Amino acid sequence: MPRNFLETMNSSIRPFRYAGANSSLHCDQASLTSLAAKFGTPLYVYSRSHIAGRFEIFDRAFAHRPHLICYAVKANPNLSILKFLARMGSGFDIVSGGELERVLLAGRRAARRAVFSGVGKTAEEIDLALRTGILLFNVESGAEAELLAARARRLRLKARVSLRVNPDVFAETHPYISTGLREHKFGIGIGESHKIYRQMAKEPFLEPVGVSVHIGSQIRSAEPFGVAMERVAELVEQLKSTGIRIQYVDAGGGVGVEYVGFDAQDGKKRAAFDPQDVAARYAAAIDRALRGLDVTLLLEPGRFLVAQAGALLTRILYVKRNGRKNFLITDAGMNDLIRPALYRAHHEILPVVRDRAAGMSTFDVVGPVCETGDFFARGRRLQRAKSGDLLALLDTGAYGMSLSSNYNSRPRPAEVLVEGGRARLIRKRETVADLLRAERSGLL
Ligand code: LLP
Asked: For the chain, which terminus, N or C, has the lower number of CB atoms within 10 Å?
């Protein structure tokens, strides 16, 4: 890492702030008004330096021990983002052949720093990963271990394997994104794992060298990570006594961020979220549990690296009043950003041009999709707005575009990456023709 990189590092909570004579929102030095004019809306906007800063914060928190950050591709799989993370030395956590193809495009060498998670890997996906020579397979069942052994034997390629164990730890988060309890489909019970490790050790083409866990996502306390790691450390010791030497411990992802509160709006209201402090506490909890173990630590952060680097820029189509409620109807919908509909997730919404004279009102911010669940906010106090005004939905860099769909035959948004004052189109806006292509060929 060049020395001056640290000095230019962006360590604030978000890269979005008001600037300029008419007080308009910027991503780093790029004006969102100009970006909307140039690239259209809805538009995902990400700050490159913010992602780099978060990577650096996370990396430094573990600097004292051998480790590799394996960015969770699912959080935001855009090729340009993968490519620059690969250049920063990141590895990758992938969950499908498609994600592996993306990592291969981002950098062939980086693909050898990939770990492959997921409960339902197919034989084709396993073969691609074996041929690529990925770092580790995070195996999630005895049946998967058998299939992996058979494919590796057939290709005469060795597979380094980690069992994803289920530590039976409760992590306070949304039930849809909690994974570390026995009732969840993920991982293998620690008790059962011994037998599978023994079986794998007998396989000539499997090398059981790792233990992995992932207890859930958007976890705001370091404690459950520490508890899970203690259970992993105990397993590592037990395996050692049976002759299985574990070289990699994979702590998974899940470090949460602050979605509520913002420092852009009035310059006073600051979220109680310090990314450096969060990373340090997380690292300390893991360290405490792993003390004395001679292993390389793998980490799979997704959200922590990219969520707050991104905003979804949308234009208000209509302001509608129905007597009881005020609606701002935006050109972005639940197909572009499903987190509020799916998890009742909160995203801060800022007017792109701040106008203190406009006054405030209470609004439901909704999209054009034909579902009552198509909302971004309900009963939110916002600056009064008119048709044509722009809004920014904050903290949408993770699980925004990656969870988007074409519901209602809506083409997905474009994505731009801001580098200082310049913005680069890193994904073209989809067209209706793109959506129809796969069906037209089969038209009767
Ligand atoms: N590793 C594994 C094995 C995972 O399953 C996940 C996320 C991660 C790492 C990264 O977790 P993160 O650091 O981003 O929390 N769509 C949901 C989040 C689903 C997370 C799924 N697994 C959301 O929008 O909140």
From this structure: C
Q: What pLDDT was estimated at residue 173?
A: 76
Kindly state if the Cβ of 217 falls inside 6 Å of ligand 1.
yes
- In terms of domains, do 353 and 217 share one? no
Any atom of ligand 1 within 6 Å of the Cβ of 301: yes
Indicate if 160 and 188 belong to the same structural domain. Answer: yes
Instruction: List the one residue out of 391, 372, 375, 394 whose CA is nearest residue 383.
Output: 391
250 lines ligand 1 (CB under 6 A): no
Q: Of the residues 21, 143, 272, 370, which is catalytic?
A: 370
C-beta of 231 in contact with ligand 1 (< 6 A):
no
CA 303 / ligand 1 centre spacing (Å): 7
Look up the CATH number of the domain holding residue 212: 3.20.20.10
Is the minimum distance from the CB of 93 to ligand 1 under 6 angstroms? yes
Percent of the chain with pLDDT over 70: 95
Q: Is the CB of 92 under 6 A from ligand 1?
A: no
Q: Which of 54, 74, 305, when mutated, tests ligand 1's pocket best, judged by the most ligand atoms within 8 Å of its CB?
A: 74
Predicted confidence (pLDDT) per residue in 378-427, tens digit: 999 999 999 999 999 999 999 999 999 999 999 999 999 999 889 999 99
Q: From ligand 1's centre to the CA of 342, what distance in Å?
A: 14
Whether 286 and 318 share a structural domain: no
Residue 140 has pLDDT above 50, yes or no: yes
Task: Looking at the structure, tell me whether residues 281 and 335 fall in a common domain.
Answer: no
Closest listed residue to residue 10, CA positions, set 427, 419, 402: 419
- Let me know whether 318 and 380 are in one domain: yes
Split into its structural domains, the chain has a count of 2
Instruction: Provide the residue range defining the domain that includes 389.
Output: 5-47+308-436
Q: How far apart are CA 212 and CA 295, in angstroms?
A: 12
81 lies in some domain: no
State in Å: Cα 106 to ligand 1 middle.
21
- Nearest ligand 1 atom to alpha carbon 174: 25
Cα gap 213→200, rounded to integer Å = 18
Q: Render the burial of 371-409: b for 16+ CB within 10 Å, e for the rest.
A: eeebbbbeebebbbbeeebbbbbbbbbbbbbbbbeeeee
Q: Is the pLDDT of residue 13 over 90?
A: no
pTM: 0.95
Specify the pLDDT at position 351: 96
User: E strands within 78-231?
Assistant: 91-94, 114-116, 136-139, 159-166, 188-189, 206-212
